[in-house]
UniProtKB/TrEMBL annotation:
Species whose genome carries this gene: Nymphaea colorata
Protein name listed in UniProt: Aldehyde dehydrogenase domain-containing protein
Lineage per the UniProt record: Eukaryota, Viridiplantae, Streptophyta, Embryophyta, Tracheophyta
Amino acid sequence: VTTERMLAHMKRLLEIPGSKLLFGGQPLENHTIPEIYGAIKPTAVFVPLSEMLKKDHFEIVTTEIFGPFQ
């Protein structure tokens, strides 16, 4: 998963009512990680359980991202 895809996923999660960025959410700087791999700071997004279980949000909230993302 690329950095751009990780950040786009984060942005989609933050569009869910009540969600918030707990930490991270920024690309790494001055690294040597190939562009095909995501390079973001450890990131956590809070999504309320009541919103997570809604049909419109469930798929995006349960999308697995291989990287420092929760």
